[in-house]
Here is the input.
Amino acid sequence: MPISRTTFIALATVMAAAVMAAAATSATAAPRINCTTASSTFEMNDCAERDFSAADAKLNSVYQRSLAAVPDMAFEKPYDTKSWIAALRNSQRAWVAFRDAECKNHVAMFWTGGTGATVDILGCMTEKTRARTKDLIDHYIDR
Here is the structure.
């Protein structure tokens, strides 16, 4: 006896959900790479990505705290809160553009497509992100 179209769609939906759940489980169950002993390109790239993600998350947090600190530092025009926040936002956007141009474009040129490019690019981005974070902390948080 043939199955109805409704039954077929229901079965297909259940099977698709089961496949997605299995894929999610296997992805989260993968062993975590030990970055102190990473030796393959894949492992080094994974560790470099984790370092950058952590540095970027900290920068984003410090940047938000810096914006929040501006009203206590601002005076009257052209150093009022609105102008200062606009200047900090413009500075941050320009800094991100510089970091990306330097690391993703310039540093990549040295590798001409080699396998070490990703680690070097992410290392550059991490280093510059940490430096920017320190600058913001020095200017806005620990003043």
